[in-house]
Design goal:
By secondary structure, the chain is of the alpha/beta class. The protein has 2 domains: 93 residues, no CATH class; 318 residues, Alkaline Phosphatase, subunit A (3-Layer(aba) Sandwich), CATH 3.40.720. 39% of the residues lie in helices and 16% in strands. It contains 17 helices and 19 strands. Strands 3, 4, 5, 6, 9, 10, 11, 12 and 13 form a 9-stranded mixed β-sheet that branches. The longest helix has 28 residues. It starts with a helix and ends in a 6-residue tail after the last helix.
């Protein structure tokens, strides 16, 4: 009965049975239990469950248990029966597969047909998937050749080693030492912003910044979790199956944006509104070129509001302003990645900031985050470093990834706004863009010449018909190009869909060229990381 209630609330939040998120949550019991406690009436729910459990036991189960204890069957006869009963779950482990529920093209129907506890076990067992074992592959030398051809431009010079994507990227313009402030916003779907079509006026500040800056109208998140967004925004690598690299072992000294900018005289830092041990952020960023600052750096008296996930976004930005002022005084350009937390259940924030009361839903949390970002930009505009700073506002992932299909494209559509009134002219960029393209695009704005291992490209050097993007769950790997979506799945399954203008997906024959491109990206990303070849 406890599980019925748990599955119901999990479905309400994620529109799916237990999956990798549920397994992941077991690691961070403080935050998760705190979030549940703040979001739901826990004590009444537990009391109701207890009440019905007592009734169930007393009127139905008690007599059956008592009867079983009085059985006079001899041990010799009981033993074969016991072994038979034990054999059922044992054999199911070997012969029942989680993909047996995949009877429909409607993903909601597929999820409903599954069993929550079994799905939980399957997700726990497969938290890191070996690409070569579970996914379609091609010869690795061929994969490198495909990628080198796809990533090749006039300004790109590859090294002599064929089995590598390492290449020298150059610009004819002189290098610019602009500061970069990258704000990754928790769970901000593009559909919530007015400039992307929303009519409820939740984001007046971000809408204003988008109209005054560079707005990307066709950008897609790599995954469905914060760590996937952080991975894309720091490593510019396609999502490898299983857990994000942010949380995997041997993820130190990688080819990251922080490490690269540090070599070019920058001060790189990661600022987080929660505790940085969550999702392994402290360790990952601290060992990949970033100075890490989290809520521990804020004095209790300076916190206007906090919940289990972290301090209110306005307090995070107050901390960020203080940090940026200090970096400016050091006399070197800075790169600061700021991760917000307020747009997350239980959707709580300080009173009196916006016209929607706290804890009434996501709409209020979005509007509050927008308020905090607007307040931050206004305060930053009075600083001596403002005119030389590029502000980047992007989501880590969408609010929900559930849909009728395995990878519903519209559930990965996120906003990207680049704002720097003295540097960048207002424009709308409408070409298909991957989240991993943001890192090399920012480096292109700085005109940095560098040896690159990034899988993303400077999007302003992309020619027509050279656009692609990556979307994924922890086991489904998607490759979007020219209105088609390739999906790679375990059991070496490959599917292709035609994606219409309204994001409807129609199955179609797999194009071998697109299939090999998708495999080349994902297989090579896994290969480089697994073999320690993605280091700085």
């Amino acid at each position: 009965m406890f599980n019925i209630v748990s599955e119901w609330t999990f479905w309400d939040e994620f529109s799916t049975r237990y999956n990798f998120i549920a397994v992941d949550y077991l690691v961070y019991t403080t935050e998760v239990i705190g979030n549940i406690w703040e979001s739901y009436p826990v004590i009444p729910i537990i009391l109701v469950i207890l009440f019905f459990t007592i009734l169930l036991f007393y009127f139905i189960l008690r007599k059956k248990i008592k009867l079983s204890l009085s059985s006079n069957i001899k041990f010799v006869k009981r033993t074969p029966i016991a072994f038979l009963l034990l054999a059922i779950p044992t054999l199911s482990w070997f012969f029942v597969r989680n993909n047996a529920k995949n009877f429909s093209k409607n993903q909601y129907a597929v999820e409903l047909s599954g069993d929550g506890l079994y799905d939980f076990g399957a997700a726990f067992w497969n938290n890191e998937l070996n690409y070569d074992k579970f996914y379609a592959t091609i010869d690795q030398k061929k994969a490198f050749k495909i990628l080198r051809d796809l990533l090749n431009r006039d300004s790109v010079v590859y090294n002599k080693q064929a089995e590598s994507i390492e290449r020298f990227i150059s610009y004819t313009q002189p290098e610019k030492k602009y500061n970069i402030v990258l704000i990754s916003v928790e769970s901000l779907s593009a559909e919530y912003l007015g400039v992307y079509g929303d009519t409820t006026h939740m984001t007046p500040h971000m809408d204003s910044l988008a109209k005054k800056g560079l707005m990307f109208s066709n950008l897609y998140a790599s995954g469905t979790r914060t760590v996937r967004g952080l991975e894309a925004l720091s490593l510019s690598i396609p999502p490898t199956p299983g857990e994000s690299i942010v949380k995997r072992p041997n993820n130190e000294n990688l080819f990251s944006l922080g490490n690269l900018l540090n070599k070019n005289g920058y001060q790189s830092q990661y600022i987080y509104g929660g505790y940085g041990y969550f999702d392994n952020m402290n360790y990952f960023f601290g060992n990949n070129g970033y100075e890490v600052t989290d809520r521990n750096a804020i004095d209790k008296k300076d916190i206007h509001y906090e919940n289990i996930w972290g301090v209110a976004d306005e307090d995070l930005f107050t901390l960020a302003i203080r940090q940026l002022d200090q970096k400016y005084k050091n006399g070197k350009p800075f790169f600061s990645h700021i991760m917000t937390v307020s747009n997350h259940r239980p959707y709580t924030y300080p009173d009196g900031r916006i016209d929607i009361p706290s804890k009434t839903g996501r709409q209020g949390a979005i509007k509050y985050t927008d308020y905090a970002i607007g307040k931050f930009i206004k305060e930053a505009s009075s600083k001596p470093w403002f005119n030389n700073t590029i502000f980047v506002i992007v989501a880590d992932h969408c609010a929900s990834s559930a849909g009728k299909t395995e990878l519903p494209v519209d559930k990965y559509h996120i906003p990207l706004i680049i704002y720097a009134p003295k540097i960048i002219k207002p424009e709308v960029y409408d070409k298909l863009t991957a989240q991993i393209d943001i890192v090399p695009t920012l480096l292109g704005m700085l005109h940095v010449n560098y040896d690159s291992k990034f899988f993303g490209r400077d999007i302003f050097r992309v020619q027509n018909n050279e656009e692609w993007a990556f979307i994924s769950t922890y086991e489904k790997l998607g490759y979007m190009r020219n209105g088609h979506l390739i999906i790679l799945s375990p059991q070496k399954k490959v599917e292709q869909f035609k994606v219409s203008a309204n994001n409807e997906q129609t199955p179609e024959k797999v194009d071998e060229k697109l299939k090999e491109e998708a495999i080349a990206f994902y297989q090579t990303a896994s290969y480089l990381y697994k073999n320690g070849l993605f280091g700085k």
